[in-house]
Amino acid sequence: MNARILEFKVLGDEKGSLVALESNKNVPFDIKRVFYIFGTKEGVRRGCHAHKKLNQVLVCVSGSSKILLDDGVERNEILLGDPRIGLYVGNMIWCEIYDLSDDCVIVVLASDYYDEADYIRRYKDFLHIKFNLTPEDLNRTQMIKEQTFTKNK
After folding, report:
1. Do the strands 85-89 and 75-80 form a parallel or antiparallel pair, or are they unpaired?
2. What are the beta bridge partners of residue 108?
3. Active site residue: 49, 75, 130, 145, which one?
């Protein structure tokens, strides 16, 4: 899967801690855009899309959340809740953010500027683009994935 945990070096002294995020050093790409997610209402899922080309690093700087990553073959659930840890999410990975705590703030570093054309917002479209599946294949694959994911929960 084109995703991995990044451990950031913590700098600081008796006054407190600091983590520096730098393009092509501890972040594996040129940072072109930064945004943050906060104030998410209970029960709401964020993300719920994939990117054709964009790469991202997610850092939960406050609170915690769960991240579902899906490459069309396997699904992984990651718990983010430590500002020293980042989650690299490469292109063509379906990503959903959920179970955000009330105080959750997630900073997202992106490898490119916002481009709506880069987003894949429907899971069936994601599978179609990634694997060039027919509508019949998509329906069969979706049923299998839902059964597998329910069993593994």
Report:
1. unpaired
2. 35, 58
3. 49
Element (H, E) at 67: strand 65-70
- Condensed to tens digits (0 to 9), the pLDDT of residues 5-52 reads 999 999 999 999 999 999 999 999 999 999 999 999 999 999 999 999
Q: Return the closest-CA partner of residue 38 out of 89, 91, 108.
A: 108
Q: Any catalytic annotation for residue 49?
A: yes
64: tokens are 């915690």
DSSP 145: H
Tokens of 120: 């894949």
Q: Residue 14 burial (CB < 10 Å; 0-12/13-18/19+)?
A: exposed
Q: Residues 66, 98: contact at Cβ < 8 Å? A: yes
Structural tokens at position 16: 């407190």
pTM of the model: 0.87
- Residue 151's pLDDT band (cuts 50, 70, 90): very low
Phi, psi of 75 (to 5 degrees): -120, 135
**CB of 97 closer than 8 Å to CB of 70:** no
3-state secondary structure of 56: strand
